Amino acid sequence: MLMKKTHRIALLFNANKIFDREVIAGIAAYLSSRRSQWDLFLEEDFRLRLPGIDRWQGDGIIADFDDPAVAAALASSSIPLVAVGGSYENPNDYPVGVPYVATDNFKLIQLAYEHLIDAGLGNFALFSLPEAQANRWAQEREKAFCALMRRDRLEPEVFRGQSTHAPSWDEAVQQLIAWLHSLPKPVGIIAVTDARARQLLQACTIADIAVPEQVALIGIDNDPLARMLTRIPMSSVIQGATEMGRTAAHLLDQMLHGVRLPDSRILVPPAGINVLASSRHQPARHPHVMRARHFIRQYACQGIKTDQVAEYVGISRSSLEGYFRQELGCSVHDEILRMRLEAATAILESGECNLADVARRCGFTSSQYLHSVFKRELGCSPRTYQKRALGLRQDHESEVAEG
Known about the structure:
The structure is a single chain. The protein has helices at 18-33, 68-73, 105-118, 136-151, 169-182, 194-207, 224-228, 241-256, 287-299, 306-313, 317-327, 332-349, 355-361, 367-378, 382-402, and strands at residues 7-12, 38-41, 60-64, 81-86, 100-103, 124-127, 158-159, 187-191, 215-220, 235-238, 265-268, 272-274. It has a six-stranded parallel sheet. A six-stranded mixed sheet has the order 7-6-8-9-10-12, sandwiched between helices. It folds into three domains: 7-103 and 241-269, Response regulator (Rossmann fold), CATH 3.40.50; 105-239 and 274-279, 3-Layer(aba) Sandwich (Rossmann fold), CATH 3.40.50.2300; 287-392, Homeodomain-like (Arc Repressor Mutant, subunit A). The two termini are 30 Å apart. Helix 3 packs across helix 4 (136-151), helix 9 (287-299) crosses helix 10 and helix 9 (287-299) runs parallel beside helix 12. By secondary structure, it is α/β, with parallel strands linked by helices. The longest helix is centred in the last third of the chain and has 21 residues, at 382-402.
């Protein structure tokens, strides 16, 4: 019996980015579902280093072509190569002679835009990145946003701001706050990444701008780290990066077996939206309710009580309770509990299983109290909820892999 050849494959990605990590996860998922034997070459610390890659004696490469340095380093490579990156409005912007798997930038923005429309918003803006070769994908998302605005006879509003550097951080935040104040309210803002969306949330907090009543925002990447670093749970478009990894691995597998795929282009649509508090725009008629909900979103998981919310708003507890009953049909405590429950379900869906830690991080006094709230509000225990959520995700991933 002949043994299958083991191919040596280099993965040129910067795994500091959630997009790149998910592409790598998709490659791994493809290999686990097939009998292909690959030895994968990755830097030990996952940082991308290119010197000497042109002298690497391997069988194939899958690389992130959103990075212009990667594309340049591989321009004359004779090794079978599959490129991964963002889609382009102009077909001439794609690399020549290289199979290319792209995230569909237009559909990413379109999905975010339609979500904000469904939330009842009529003003829209985009928070992008400074123009640069390394940010070509962000400029493509700008083009998509502007095209959608003009299609709907709206004037595009795009703010690029500054790149994030420690010396200019305060100046960048003040520029962002000035831009936020200049926008008509309420406004829905799409950020080209979750990192940019997190900056928006910070600026809104500093400027005391209510999210999502005045500014509803949504990022792109569904990065769990970015969500953990924000006080208000952040909505995000889920890129199909895992599917991109599977597709890229499949293309390279074909090439390793003699199939020619010059100039093949495959656009992968987004996988959906993780809708959380930052984009759940529900116009509040009374300013006290709007201000109270803004405070609750930021501090619900820190164990705040109704009295503290009333003190922040500057009115009596009974008056605030009356406004909440009139406008939302619930008590202030109900709204606090809802936000805590939303935070807990998000953590459980990510795979964390230590209920005591989940309870502590979400403002519940004990894991027993967390359990009783889940049973009362969702009809199941936290562990049952988690098993169902993870089971649905695994079923979906299996369907995608089989498809």
